[in-house]
Amino acid sequence: MNLITTLILFPLAIAILSFVIRQDKIRNAIVTLGAASIALLTVLVTVRYFGDGITYSYHQEEGISYLIMCLEIIIAGYVLVKSIRDKKYLVTVFAAIQTPLILWFELSAGHHIQIVNQIVYDKLSGIMVLIIGIIGSLICIYAVGYMKDYHHHHKEYAERKSFFLSILFLFLSAMFGLVLSNNLTWLYFCWEVTSLCSFLLIGYTRTEEAKSNSYRALTINLGGGLAFAVAIVFIGLHYDTLELSTLISLEPEAIAMVPVFLMSVAALTKSAQFPFSSWLLGAMVAPTPSSALLHSATMVKAGVYLIIRLAPMLGDSPVGIAVTGIGCATFLLSSLAAVTQSDGKKILAYSTVANLGLIVICASIGSQEALWAAILLIIFHASAKSLMFLCVGSIEHQLGSRNVEDMGDLALVSRKLNLFMFIGIAGMFLAPFGMLISKWVAMKAFIDSRHILAVIVIAYGSAITLFYWTKWMGKLVSGSNRKQEKEHSFSLFEELPIIIHVIIVIVSCFAFPLISDYALVPYLTELFGKDAVIPIGTSDVNLMIMMLAMLIIIPISFIPLYKGDKRRIVPIYMAGENTGDNETFYGGLGEKRKAEMRNWYLSEYFDSKKMLFIGNIIAILILVLGVILLIGGLAQ
Amino acid sequence: MLILKIIVIILLTPIAGGLLTGMDRVITARMQGRQGPPLLQPFYDVLKLIQKEAIEVNLMHRFYVYLSLIFVILTSVILLLGGDILLAVFALTLGSVLFILGGYASNSPYSLIGSERELLQMMAYEPMVLLTGIGFYLADKSFFISDIIKNNIPAIVYLPGMFIGFVYILTFKLRKSPFDFSMSHHGHQEIVQGITTEYSGKDLAVIEITHWYEQIIALVFVFLFFATSHISSIIVGIIVCLLVYFLEILIDNGFARMKWNFALKSAWLVTAVLGSVNLMVLSYFR
Amino acid sequence: MNFIKKSPWILHYDGSSCNGCDIEVLACLTPLYDVERFGIINTGNPKHADILLITGSVNEQNIPIVKQLYEQMPEPKVVVAVGICATSGGIFAECYNIVGGVDKVLPVDVYVPGCAARPESIIDGVVKALAILDEKQKILSGKKALAK
Fold first, then answer.
1. CB-based contact (8 Å) between C4 and chain B?
2. Please, what is the average pLDDT of chain A?
3. Using CA atoms, how far apart are residues A307 and A358, in angstroms rounded to an integer?
4. Inter-residue contact A189 to A233 (CB < 8 Å)
5. Model-level pTM greater than 0.90?
6. CA A146 → CA A131, A393, A549, B38, distances in Å?
């Protein structure tokens, strides 16, 4: 058994172990050790194979295929029974069509197709493996601490920690399989497992809301799965191949665009683009570690990963244009919707959708520069978003609220969390941090490939992004000068993953030229067959690093720097009516009144429901247009 | 040599900006039939502020203002040394964000309203600034200012719509009516003094100096529209900059302050119409 | 050199006045008198101000407010009492709620009499205040030098 097989199977073993063992202490130890080993394993795999990559297949291919088929039948059976019992018949229909379809295909036509490489580990999979392995396992460790607090705060939910943790690990295993499989049927299987895992995670609390949201996620993802299944059958019957690498090296003729289109639709459902975004927004009812896992490192990244893989087939083809259009609509409108939100997790959800939209735009444009930006966006988004989710999760427990308006008081409770959250937000949009570098390159790529609409969308989108992040940052900053009132320690299981995340966010910004040189440039050079260059000039990179170094001093503002400096401190200006505590003023009748300070949400303009509605309409129109173009292309 | 250049830029930019502000105040006064302050008044103000006692409301809020100044200086250095225009825009944005955070950090109601409005203004003008940078790239094939000014044909030929759009949002950047709703200069007292309400002494002086830099940065963008490799373009560019500045003063004196709704809508509309159409036409022909 | 003389910024506070003096203070800003000639700006913010210009007398209600505004001004600062009410209470002096002139609460540096005080005398008062500001600035920088 080589390292890569271990990488896929090891999380599975931990999943089973943590499901079986019911004693908290032993399980926690196993989960923590297991997660740490996964991270270590990831690093080992990277060190071992990253340079040259590896492609191979198994001798027991047939056995594995039959095993997968069995598992597929079991999953389908579970979904069918459950959905009929809960009267969600759309799910029943989707499951009842796709599983027999795939089984029939594999047992008949698909059975004879020879597959050369079942597992492909190249630079792109390598990066994905690193993200999943490191960020994913950190989230698992965090979950150990979080779930304890969670059930402490929410006594109304049945405690199923074993189940929760084991699903997290199952998720990691499926994700590893997904990014490493070159065999489309295997990829499809992993794809369906992630859908199922997300269903189970979202429905964890078993409330009505959780139930309906989990079914929404399952419906949409199974719909995508159906498209995927049809695509596989189509490829198998038409081209007599089941390899992803062969598919993307096909001539981009009209007939080949059919499976590409179907797979793109599947990818769009998974990465929560309009009109399929509602599942991700609903996924917020789940405990935070699962949101973090779904939104940053795994689930949604599977979708954009597939689009990046398909990028050579997209480009200026009708399908490519349709996907770009959907990405544009998603990026712009969900950014606008984020402006009106005050719930921290909701903002993160909308911004996730928006950023995925941006990645989708980059990936579907498919030029060298655009892919460079897309992959970097994946890396930086995964680390910064995951950090923020973990922070919000802990903040909710410490503060009793995850509303942004209440975060002015965060420094009173925990200065550390305040600082970590600040760094997370800075990582999302401020100048020398990763996301902005990628956006910059994306902008350049769009203009170089003459996608003017995308350029305009990114110009507006960045301005809107700036608005909602800065006002959140402002809330954090406004409390930073106040004294921490009580020592609120949070468990090491929560703190350690957050600190490592912070380090990753900062270090990845310093290291992005290295990432570019050792991973992106070789990958893109190989993919395009011509030399790729880092799209930013060296002098600019140096300047950015200088800026970053300067920005590192920002956190100093959270430490009272000027203790020795004797400046007179006066009350803030409240037209002379400040009562002296800087929070209240004397009202008209001499009584003390609190000065309430709230952010702007502009909900009369950018109402989130309205934005989603418009976005969905636009996206559906684009999809219909894509279908028409596709049929038109076939008819020619 | 490079270091000498940087020092000269850091020293001369605020002096030019201060003189411009002084001119502004004199011209404004004359437009209102007053005599107005001496030309060097802005410098007197700043020097006075430096001499005065600095008081503060808490230990941290001044920190952001100094950081903001550093990044605005960085922006002007990048611009005037012929660096990447988008990088300059990002550095400037960072400076503005830090300034806004300063308003939040003071935790004062008036500062907070100022911060919110300033943030809204940024959201209004930022798309146009980014599109302007991209427009230059499309017109002159480079993001580097050193390349843009070497062209034979001034960018204005390709970017007339961009230019008008940029002048429109310049009103935000120069803090002039009708779009000075976050904070305005001299006589006005809207929401006390916005973000600057809680700053005094040296910290306030730093804010003034930051604004001087910002004014020059804004005008450098205007200048770029006219810059060519020919020597006369420098004179033309400077004349246009002064004319645009005069126009802004005229608008400042001729208009009342607008509501933020109008500011946001109109800025985005102008960007969408003038900026985007210009970009589309240009990308079609080049 | 002390630049405070060249750029005095004013905070105008209206106590219990009849608004006659306030109108005259505003008249100073008009083109006819144009105090901006001297670099004078009406800031409306104590943290930016050098001169606290008070019209009208102080009463029980506004004593803490006047004190707070004065406290919020950075050194060096001066107080100019404009109009007879601000200097002594004027015709309101006998009212049940009136405490008297501003000097009952704050150290007043310049008294500008008149009912209402004429713009010329207000400007005159402010210019007198400048000399005092200059003195205070010198004392302040002397203190700083000593501290070093």
1. yes
2. 87
3. 12
4. no
5. yes
6. 21, 8, 33, 65
